[in-house]
Amino acid sequence: MTALYIGSIRTRGGYRPPVTVRAESKDEARHYLSARYPCDRIEAVLPARYWPPCSDTGRDRGDIREHHG
Fold this sequence. Notes:
Ubiquitin-like (UB roll); globular; alpha+beta; 16% helix
């Protein structure tokens, strides 16, 4: 069963907006983020304790979403 994780991703120009990813483990979430953002640095991947229910966070394993402002 998948869980929702939040990634902190840094580019050369600064941080990306918050990114969520659906994965079965923290390591799997990091793997998906590394594949999606190969030139950026994944600084942290944490389980999402609370996320607004109206936000689109995907439903399937490997779904990645950026959440702007």
